[in-house]
Design brief:
The complex is a heterodimer of chains A (about 350) and B (about 180). Chain A has about 350 residues and is mostly helical. Helices cover about 65% and strands about 5% of the residues of chain A. Chain A has one domain. In chain A, helix 5 packs antiparallel against helix 6. The longest helix of chain A has about 35 residues. The mean pLDDT of chain A is about 85. With about 180 residues, chain B is an all-alpha fold. Chain B has six helices and no strands. Chain B starts with a helix and ends in a 15-residue tail after the last helix. Classes of the chains: A mainly alpha (about 350), B mainly alpha (about 180). The interface between A and B is medium-sized, with 26 and 22 residues.
């Protein structure tokens, strides 16, 4: 493949993925409001467009035209940089996520992924671990006690649960023998006894449980949304933010949710594997459809949990992370290693 | 002849040096900490260029993502303000700066003199996780384990030093929660 084809293909792929991701972020917000609304015997958004489908567009316009207030007592350079850090790192991690096998156009083969690197999983972990700074710096630079407490809580929570998250993934890595997300998905092809798919969730249920808990805590979602507990902290780290800067934190949170859902799909739910049938064009599109369907299910569970569970107390959160989740993840890792070495 | 690798190498090097200088110049502790993060990230880029992708990822995850978060935490919790600017000590100006210049010139001379001997092409060194694993757990198992024990001792020492001793000289009483 000549270098210019590679560059043009990369630019087109990045543009498509970014567009799809941002649309998905907007409609995840819509889905959440709708689903939580119905769970609470309300309608959710209904006014803008059919079923309120244009609500994300209305929200976007509102965010753009709202007055961008900067309180006088903030530390300005970091106050402005913090939402940018949050949203940039949230959007970066999508770059190494594969969406399906490769397609062939004009005689060239393009993998359905912006870039295929052999340490893809480590890159996602690295990018998400640096994303903590957005939240922590927002809390500190706002110069407000609620913001600071929210930022500290978010930082402590993310650093603590990152360990369980990483350890829960090692079991999957041992089974696949690679850091490349594409290899991990390919290792999950086929079936047990002809009908149960060979997904890691059936081989590593404990790891999936640990990953699920740690992922909810990493994305600061209910039941672990202590950093923005409105009953005690107003709005946590983004108390002092308005207009587009607030929207950036919002986008970062939902983009992180989608990344976590992608990772769960790739590592535990078999990626794009699923029943393939029909004419060639359908056969080419079905893997991407299965991938998106699994992400949708994961996001729906996220919203379902939000509509169902109350919030933890902060000491319960830390005790759960360090005294329960971490030991379980370590035991699972040791058991997997012994089983594989056998 | 400028290859893309050389350009990137120089760019990351410039970022690392600029971050290090900024770390010293800034008066606010949090700006210094953030400059240090920039240095770490630039170093990770250099490792990546040398083909050590695993080391690069670990550099970002461990240093930029975990250790520096704790640094920033401490600064945020202590609420350290802007440092006072002093003129600096005279000893530093008289001996420090010329000494540093002589040292770096000497280093550059040595490196340039031996530059023709062995240059490592990009990606020639084993840096993939698959080659690092056996090295860590077979060849260098003993140093690896000894390092972890050293770190454990350091943690215990920090706990002992940080806990307030009671009047009788015993360890601090457990705080009831």
């Amino acid at each position: 493949m000549p270098i210019w084809v590679y560059i043009v293909a990369s630019i087109i792929k990045s543009a498509i993925v970014l567009l799809v991701l941002l649309t998905a972020v907007a409609y995840t917000v819509w889905l959440e409001r709708k689903v939580v609304g119905h769970m609470q015997n309300r309608w959710g958004p209904t006014r803008v467009g059919p079923f309120g489908l244009l609500q994300p567009a209305a929200d976007g316009i509102k965010f753009l035209f709202k007055e961008d207030l900067t309180p006088p007592h903030v530390y300005k350079p970091l106050y402005i940089a913090a939402p940018l850090i949050a949203v940039v790192f949230a959007l970066t991690s999508i770059a190494v996520i594969p969406f399906g096998n490769s397609i062939t156009l004009f005689g060239y083969t393009f993998p359905l992924q912006i870039t295929d690197v052999n340490i893809g999983l480590l890159i996602i972990l690295g990018v998400t671990s640096v994303g903590v700074y957005g939240v922590a710096l927002a809390g500190w630079s706002s110069n407000n006690k609620y913001s600071l407490l929210g930022g500290l809580r978010a930082g402590a929570q993310m650093v603590s649960y990152e360990i369980s998250l990483g350890l829960s993934l090692v079991g999957v890595l041992i089974l696949a023998g690679s850091f490349s997300l594409r290899d991990i998905v390919n290792a999950q092809g086929g079936h047990f006894w002809g009908f149960i798919p060979r997904w890691n969730i059936f081989i590593q249920p404990v790891a999936f449980f640990c990953y699920l808990m740690a992922a909810y805590a990493e994305t600061n979602r209910i039941p672990f949304d202590l950093p923005e507990a409105e009953t005690e902290l107003v709005a946590g780290y983004h108390t002092e933010y308005s207009a587009m800067k607030f929207a950036m934190f919002f986008m970062a949170e939902y983009a992180n949710m989608i990344t976590v859902a992608c990772l769960a799909t790739l590592l535990f739910l078999g990626g794009w594997h699923g029943p393939i049938f029909g004419p060639p064009i359908l056969q080419a599109l079905l893997p991407v459809f299965w991938f998106c369907a699994k992400i949708f299910v994961f996001l729906f569970v996220y919203i379902w949990v939000r509509g169902t569970l109350p919030r933890f107390r902060y000491d319960q959160l830390m005790a759960f992370g360090w005294k329960f989740l971490l030991p379980v993840a370590i035991v699972n890792l040791v058991a997997t290693a012994i089983a594989v070495a056998w | 002849m400028l290859s893309i690798h050389l350009i990137l190498f120089l760019a990351f090097g410039a970022i690392a040096v600029a971050g290090a200088v900024n770390l010293l110049v800034q008066t606010h502790p949090i700006n210094s900490a953030l400059s240090l993060i920039a240095v770490m990230a630039a170093l990770a880029g250099e490792y990546l260029l040398l083909g050590a992708e695993f080391v690069a990822a670990v550099q970002v995850i461990v240093y930029a993502g975990a250790i520096m978060v704790l640094f920033v935490f401490v600064i945020m919790l202590l609420n350290a303000g802007v440092e006072e600017h002093t003129k600096g000590s005279r000893v530093a100006i008289v001996f420090g700066i010329p000494g540093m210049l002589v040292g770096s010139l000497l280093l550059a001379w040595v490196v340039l003199k031996h530059s023709g001997t062995q240059s490592v092409p990009v990606g020639a060194l084993p840096g993939a996780p698959r080659t690092i694993g056996p090295l860590l757990f077979h060849e260098f198992l003993l140093p690896f384990e000894i390092t972890s024990i050293l770190i454990l001792i350091a943690i215990m020492g920090a706990v002992v030093l940080a806990s307030k001793p009671t009047a009788t000289g015993g360890p601090a009483k457990k705080v009831q929660d």
